[in-house]
Design brief:
FAD/NAD(P)-binding domain; about 400 residues; 6-stranded mixed β-sheet; globular; alpha+beta; binds arabino-flavin-adenine dinucleotide; binds P-hydroxybenzoic acid
Length: about 400
């Protein structure tokens, strides 16, 4: 089989890239190791920045997001017994975010890809990439009929943190930075109404909690838990009891509990691999970087990488110009590192760290008190949360 761009991974990055390339007339094939149902079964991100919303429209897959997504103009922060609203729209110069689950975004992109008649190989086994240091890269995998090979001009590594693409780069050619946080997030999904019209971030003495949502009848909650915790050790009742202890009276009064549809623990890490380009291989999304989810940046960074990569590959297809190929990595990393910084900072501001000195909590309270009482402080939270402009 031959194609212009072979995309490894059918998560948001791979699917979004496939759509943008197809609309630019660039043929592409996606190779995904899981089944489509498995990909859709993952419960992950919930907040879209304007950049991501615009890209979904550009990909021809934004209609349901506009119909069912929930525009959010602010977030609520709970700390030291108080509730403080950050008016995102006012303090970011008019921008807002959209609550629309990654699962639904992925479903929309899958449907758009199928409607375009593009090929996606699901349940591919033993995927490997070869020849990307030359001009004849290829993706090799196994299906029920044996080994298959896709010859291509470029490989897009959209295969996430545990994927094969970054792992295929010679160790000396890639440098990584990593910070692993000493806690995780226990997430619960339930068909219950949200506790608030907007997201509630709670910096409780018992640990961080987040009240998010997917729709007016479906909520997503998170609790900071020690790394030693296992989701199966948490009954629904235990989750709801602990959540109540971390919220304020207003949220407790509105909390509607119900059976969990999904419960899982996500580890928190900050991770960046540099560069993002290795010859004819380009990394995008979680394959290249990971952020703690506190700032709701993971999915949105994957989207901006893909926007740059789609532009890069279109420029090359148009006139063989390599300038965009050479600039891709630096262009992505400028935005990646600013989002990494915000996610790390926001995580440190709202979480309790095991073994920290008591004075650390006093510093955090003072910082939150300052930020939420200052135009500059509110602006720095708001403009980073809604997403910094591209190439900003
Ligand atoms: P993805 O990991 O989504 O997709 C990569 C795809 O590549 C997967 O389908 C995988 O099966 C496939 N793949 C892997 N290895 C392969 C191989 N060898 N061959 C072929 N295919 C292969 N972000 C937020 O903003 N908010 C959140 O609350 C949030 N929660 C998260 C919870 C968890 C448990 C995780 C892991 C991430 C979370 N994220 C969150 C971040 C998440 O949303 C990512 O940023 C987003 O999925 C990035 O999309 P992709 O880069 O496409 O990577
Ligand atoms: C979510 O809805 O899953 C979500 C929202 C905001 C975050 C992280 C996760 O910061």
């Amino acid at each position: 089989m031959r194609t212009r761009v072979a995309i490894v991974g059918a998560g948001p990055a791979g699917l979004l890239l496939g759509q943008l390339l197809q609309r630019a007339g660039i043929d592409n094939v996606i190779v995904e190791r899981q089944s489509a149902d498995h990909v859709l079964g993952r419960i992950r991100a919930g907040i879209l920045e304007q950049v991501t919303m615009d890209l979904l429209d550009e990909a021809g897959a934004g209609a349901r997001m506009h119909a069912e997504g929930l525009p959010h103009h602010g977030i609520e922060l709970l700390f030291d017994g108080g509730r403080h609203r950050v008016d995102l729209q006012r303090h970011s110069g008019g921008r807002v975010v959209m609550v629309y689950g990654q699962t639904e975004l992925t479903r929309d992109l899958m449907q758009a890809r199928a409607a375009a008649g593009l090929q996606t190989v699901y349940s591919a086994r033993d995927v490997r990439i070869e020849g990307f240091d030359g001009t004849r890269p290829r993706v090799v995998y196994r299906d029920a009929d044996g080994e298959r090979r896709i010859d291509c001009d470029f490989i897009a590594g959209c295969d996430g943190f545990h994927g094969v693409c970054r792992a295929s780069v010679p160790a000396g050619a890639v440098r990584t930075w990593e910070k692993v946080y000493p806690f995780g997030w226990l997430g619960l999904l339930s068909d219950t109404p949200p506790v608030c019209d907007e997201l509630v971030y709670a910096a409780s003495p018992r640990g961080f909690a987040l009240c998010s949502q997917r729709s007016p009848t479906r909520s997503r909650y998170y609790l900071q838990v020690p790394l030693t915790e296992r989701a199966e050790r948490w009954s629904d009742a235990a989750f709801w009891d602990e959540l109540r202890l971390r919220l304020d009276d207003a949220a407790r009064a509105r909390l509607v509990t119900g059976p969990s549809l999904e419960k899982s623990i996500a580890p928190l890490r900050s991770f960046v691999a540099e560069p993002l380009r290795f010859g004819r291989l380009f990394l995008a999304g979680d394959a290249a970087h990971i952020v703690p989810p506190t700032g709701a940046k993971g999915l949105n960074l994957a989207a901006s990488d893909v926007k740059y990569l789609a532009q890069t590959l279109q420029d090359y297809a148009a006139d063989g110009s390599e300038a965009g190929l050479d600039r891709y990595s630096a262009r992505c990393l400028r935005r990646v590192w600013k989002a990494e910084r915000f996610s790390w900072w926001f995580t440190g501001l709202l979480h309790r760290f095991p073994g920290e000195a008591p004075i650390e909590a006093k510093f955090r309270s003072a910082e939150l008190d300052y930020l939420l009482g200052s135009e500059a402080g509110l602006r720095t939270i708001a403009e980073n949360y809604v997403g910094l402009p591209l190439d900003g």
